[in-house]
Specification:
With 216 residues, the protein is an alpha/beta fold. The protein has four helices and eleven strands, in the order βαβββββααβββββα. Helix 3 packs across helix 4. The N and C termini lie close together (8 Å).
Length: 216
């Protein structure tokens, strides 16, 4: 059984990490079920295990937290749906690459519910949207904006951290970092793409897509 929890209000990042740590330990002991936790954070930046301090361009703008998840600098804040995935890969296959691929598929299937074509890119973790509505880049290609980030951590093949999808965050808040270390591409959201999607709408799509991808 996968337990789904949705939290109202803004959950402080340290509290979320502490809760995930505790739940994963209980899972390892066989005392808790798998869990998907949907929430929002107040505005903040997190630095993953591959982060470069030079990518933190405005360190005084929001609180900055060091995270043990994979990846680089990421922004979290209001209007962004965070989905923390505490899953047991002992029974889902001990394959980290496949797991990250499935998380990307989860996002892509969710976005497809709103007729948004999310795409993966080699060498760029996360999900991207080609912006045919914007001027071509200097290379003659349409620009690409990131709409979802992925960062995970495993302990004894139990996952935590997870994905985040931009619904209607303040995109200017990304100006304080180089998101995921990629300076040549932008950031977007569902509302920025012209879609009047709410967090509740996204939550329904996330649950449906999870079943399609993970079979639960």
């Amino acid at each position: 059984m996968v337990e789904w929890i949705t939290s109202n209000g803004f959950i402080p990042y340290p509290d979320a990490v502490s809760d995930m740590e505790s739940h994963v330990e209980s899972m390892i002991k066989g005392q808790a079920d798998e869990r998907i936790w949907l929430l929002e954070h107040p505005p903040l930046y997190t630095a993953g295990t591959s982060s470069n301090i030079n990518d933190l361009t405005d360190p005084d703008r929001f609180p900055v937290y060091t995270s043990k998840r994979g990846g680089q600098y990421t922004y979290h804040g209001p209007g962004q749906r965070v989905a923390y995935a505490m899953l047991d890969l002992n029974k889902r296959g001990r394959d980290v690459r496949k797991f990250v691929h499935n998380l990307e598929d989860w996002v892509i299937e969710t976005l497809a519910s709103f007729n948004v074509k999310g795409e993966r890119r080699d060498g760029r973790v996360g999900v991207w949207v080609v912006r045919h509505d914007k001027p071509l880049t200097v290379t003659g290609q349409p620009p690409e904006d990131k709409i979802a980030a992925i960062g995970v951590r495993l302990r004894k093949w139990h996952s935590f951290h997870g994905i985040c999808i931009n619904v209607e965050p303040d995109l200017s808040h990304y100006d304080g970092i180089v998101p995921c270390g990629i300076a040549e591409h932008g950031v977007t959201s569902l509302v920025d793409l012209g879609l009047p999607v709410t967090l509740d709408d996204l939550d329904l799509a996330l649950k449906a897509a999870f079943s399609e991808v993970f079979g639960d």
